[in-house]
Design brief:
With 207 residues, this protein is an all-alpha fold. It contains eight helices and no strands. Helix 3 packs parallel to helix 5 and helix 6 packs parallel to helix 8.
Length: 207
């Protein structure tokens, strides 16, 4: 008998379909064999269950999870929030998973591929360009003594907070949250305040 439920599954490896059919045939043979022990029957149906599980996981990957991952990648790319390097990693993982599914036949390998797509967002990294520029601007002001003594600690604290966030983000990725706008604004306000005070000092000296 042919395995109708799997013969039309696109994207799934022929090896996986063949393995499923083989396990069905083995289970039937063991069941029909009067000399088979309960352990033989149990083992045959455990192997069949594993093959079926691999089919289900692979089919769900292809029909649902990969489709969603590709949609998310398009949306994430258009958002301009993430680094090109991290977006490329996401794209590469999707393509590699699709390729692997065409040859994979082992349930553990299928589970590994499934886990990779499940956690694919862990590869994303926010673009820190603007925040890094603001940190550099603030550090330059401190270095050149353009910040009043009583405001220096506040600005340095804002810089340190931003740097700590970047370090956390490098490790955790998007799980660290998107604090870029908040941290950039905090530093920007302190810079603006310092510049205002600097301008006021010039006015005071000229009056």
């Amino acid at each position: 008998e042919s395995l109708n439920p799997t013969t039309n599954l696109e994207g799934i490896s022929d090896a996986l379909k063949t393995k499923m059919q083989d396990e069905i045939n083995k289970a039937k043979a063991v069941e029909k064999n009067g000399a088979s022990s309960q352990e033989d029957v149990k083992k045959a149906y455990e192997n069949l269950a594993k093959a079926a599980e691999a089919i289900v996981i692979a089919n769900n990957l292809i029909k649902t999870k990969i489709v969603q991952a590709e949609y998310n990648l398009k949306s994430d790319t258009e958002s301009k929030k993430y680094t090109p390097e991290s977006l490329k990693k996401v794209k590469d993982l999707i393509e590699n998973t699709k390729s692997e599914l065409k040859v994979a036949s082992d349930v553990e390998k299928i589970k590994e591929l499934d886990k990779g797509i499940e956690n694919i967002s862990d590869l994303l990294r926010y673009d820190m360009t603007d925040l890094n520029k603001k940190i550099s601007e603030a550090e330059e002001m401190i270095k050149n003594n353009k910040v009043k003594a009583e405001e220096k600690d506040s600005l340095q604290a804002a810089i340190n907070e931003a740097k700590s966030y970047i370090t956390e983000h490098d490790s955790k990725g998007t799980r660290a949250g998107d604090k870029r706008a908040e941290l950039t604004s905090n530093i920007d306000k302190l810079i603006a305040k310092s510049k205002t005070n600097e301008g006021q000092e010039v006015l005071d000296k000229s009056s």
